[in-house]
Design a protein that fits this description.
heterodimer, A: alpha/beta, Rossmann fold, four-stranded antiparallel β-sheet, 10 strands, 38% helix, globular, B: 2 domains, 14 strands
Chain lengths: 233, 430
């Protein structure tokens, strides 16, 4: 059953069509990669899926609800409840420790719970580093804190914008391994990436160009093997 | 979590927050000083203006009517000297700074050994009267305190028995008849009483009084055979500037409603004080000396207006400075604040976070500024009025409200920026 459907979605900025008549359906528990060159509309698409922007035309059905016409406050609520965001630049708050950065997401969702935040950090292998500031963590560790923060409110979709873009190969492997475990747990993962190796480990890959889906590739057959190779780093 | 974020932000943005606090300190200290001075300045300005003499004149009602209607002087209607002390018993008695009963008439002035015979005005008055009221309160009052601008050659006469045969004369009279300090004069009244007196001082008033002879009240009463009688009372009182209510009451107090009457009666308007004086001085009519009273009101109003303007301008200045600092801080933190939005924070939650930071900083600056302002007020009080300014507790409330409004007003541009901030614009590094 689709957890996300994009129906004839276009996004137009003046004379620029960032997205043009996109149709896409993602089932619950899927792992989807979105690839394409710069300016192909990847970020625009992830902004719309992540409830941070709305389409100019078309509809976006998230968990059975059309979010394309929702106002900013409702989009905030939906994003808070259903989406976990991971960013290329990590975007951790510099003056808060790792565990506090995770608790921030809890605070704006419901109520901060340090024990639960510590569990989330344990899942990404950072329990020992919980009380370190971002500046005291490596890039890979920062991204793992970012993943823990994205997961803390049990979102229906984990949305990553170039989540391995700033990582070395070893840390890239660690992050992909975390995605694999989350996928095994049934989390829906949508990742925008430039990296073909990261794109190849997903069950399904779509390729955007000039705001259009030019390829929709089912990678189920090679999914397990590619993932195994990548996870090893 | 909220508090933790605020405290950590404050610690991290120390220099910016110190700048905001410093701006608040300046604004609040100026406002505190100005408002305290404004509230305490009324009496002080009034006291300063008392050097210009009495602002209320009490006469016999018949003399007052004849004077007002026909410009005639009436010499045979008198008030009672004993009523003068009752002035201190009225509701606003504490506001009556000085008063002097005066007996006016004319006498024949001659001088032994000089070819001098002239009918001249005589004013008998309390010079420096020491009295004990029925309440036991001791009192010093008299003309000397009401004529601080007099330039006296020789000495003032006093209330001592020895000075019952001493007089002062105006310098015009002295020049006209070549009278000097120490000269002997003879004063004769129409009823045949004659007194030999010595000139103890020659005063320069600058007005009609320079043509007159000034004696103790007792001397004048004996000479004129008017024991216990006076023509008028000059009163110097601390008053509140007139407003519409005071003007309405001055025309006709009975036109006021009960509530208006109570307000008017219990406020130190010159008309209210006149009304109360008339209640205790038999046959007396008290009139404000309009020029003095109005000048006092005008100066007081202008001084107050100046203080209010300084307070408003300093508040606007603070708001602008705070606005720049907060906006700069918010722009610098836009990625962090955009992230909070992306994580699910509503606009109001982020605005609350920023306002709480600014309010806490402002509060700290406000407390320091308040105490600094009190010190400023005392410096102003000492420098300008030579006395301390009384600290009004209501200033804390007023300054608190000003601080709140200034901080909110200063935060408006930052709030607008935050409302318009889109996470997508700050989180993708674009």
């Amino acid at each position: 059953m689709p957890i996300l459907e994009l129906k004839n979605v276009s996004k137009i900025y003046g004379s620029l069509r960032a997205l043009s008549d996109i149709n896409l359906s993602v089932n619950a528990g899927d792992w989807l990669s979105i690839m394409g060159p710069s300016g192909s509309g990847k970020t625009t698409m992830i902004n719309i899926i992540g409830c941070m922007d709305t389409p100019s035309t078309g509809s976006v059905i998230l968990d059975g609800v059309d979010i394309s016409k929702e106002n900013a406050a409702n989009l905030t609520r939906i994003r808070r409840d259903k989406i976990g965001l991971i960013f290329q630049q990590f975007h951790l708050i510099s003056y808060l420790t790792a565990v506090e950065n995770v608790m921030i997401a809890q605070y704006y969702h419901s109520m901060p719970d340090e024990a639960e935040a510590m569990e989330a950090l344990e899942k990404v292998g950072l329990r020992e580093r919980a009380h370190h500031l971002p500046a005291q963590l490596s890039g890979g560790e920062q991204q793992r804190v970012c993943i823990a923060r994205a997961l803390i409110n049990s979102p229906q979709i984990l949305l990553g914008d170039e989540p391995t873009g700033n990582l070395d190969e070893e840390n890239e492997g660690i992050v992909v391994d975390i995605f694999r475990r989350l996928h095994d747990e049934g989390v829906t993962i949508i990742i925008v990436t430039h990296d073909p190796e990261v794109g190849d480990v997903a069950q399904r890959k779509i390729i955007l160009e000039h705001g259009k889906v030019i390829q929709d590739i089912d990678q189920s057959a090679t999914f397990g093997e590619a993932l195994k190779l990548k996870s090893k780093g | 979590m909220f508090l933790r974020m605020i405290l950590k932000t404050l610690a991290r943005q120390k220099s910016k927050m110190l700048m905001i606090a410093f701006t608040v300190v300046l604004g609040v200290s100026l406002s505190t000083a100005m408002i305290n001075v404004m509230l305490g300045v009324g009496d002080k300005v009034n006291r300063e203006l008392k050097v210009y003499g009495a602002n209320i004149n009490v006469k016999h009602k018949d003399a007052a009517i004849m004077g007002e209607l026909y410009g005639l002087g009436v010499n045979d209607k008198f008030l009672y000297e004993e009523d003068a002390l009752k002035l201190k018993t009225i509701f606003w008695g504490f506001n009556i700074i000085d008063f002097a009963p005066i007996l006016e008439s004319k006498i024949i002035l001659t001088a032994p050994g000089k070819n001098l015979r002239a009918e001249v005005p005589i004013n008998g008055t309390w010079i420096e009267k020491h009295a004990i009221l029925q309440t036991g309160e001791e009192l010093n009052t008299g003309l000397r305190a009401l004529r601080t601008w007099w330039d006296v050659k020789g000495e003032w006469i006093s209330e001592n028995e020895a000075d019952l045969n001493s007089v002062m004369i105006g310098n015009s009279l002295a020049s006209k008849y070549n009278i000097n300090v120490g000269d002997a004069l003879r004063l004769s009244s129409n009823n045949g009483v004659v007194k030999n007196v010595i000139v103890k001082g020659i005063y320069n008033d600058g007005g009609n009084a320079d043509e007159a002879v000034l004696t103790n009240l007792t001397t004048a009463q004996e000479l004129l055979n008017l024991s216990g009688k006076i023509s008028s009372i000059e009163v110097s009182a601390l008053t509140t500037p007139d407003n519409d209510l005071a003007r309405k009451a001055a025309q006709n107090p009975s036109s006021l409603s009960a509530e208006e009457y109570e307000t008017w009666y219990c406020t130190a308007y010159v008309s209210a004080i006149c009304h109360q004086i008339q209640e205790v001085v038999r046959d007396g009519v008290a009139r404000a000396v309009r020029q003095v009273a109005e000048s006092e009101g005008t100066i007081l109003n202008k001084t107050t207006l100046l203080m209010i303007l300084i307070t408003i301008l300093s508040s606007i200045g603070s708001a602008l400075a705070i606005s720049n600092l907060i906006t700069a801080s918010v722009i610098e933190r836009s990625q962090e604040l955009g992230l909070l939005k992306a994580l699910g924070a509503y606009n109001y939650q982020i605005i609350l976070l920023v306002l709480a930071e600014v309010m806490l900083t402002g509060l700290a600056g406000g407390i320091v500024g308040y105490f600094l302002g009190i010190a400023f007020a005392q410096i102003i009080g000492q420098t300008v009025f030579g006395s301390y300014i009384e600290i009004a507790q209501v200033v804390i409330l007023i300054v608190g409200i000003i601080l709140f409004l200034v901080t909110i007003a200063g935060s408006i541009p930052a709030i607008r920026y935050l409302m318009a901030l889109k996470p997508t614009e700050v989180l993708h590094g674009k």
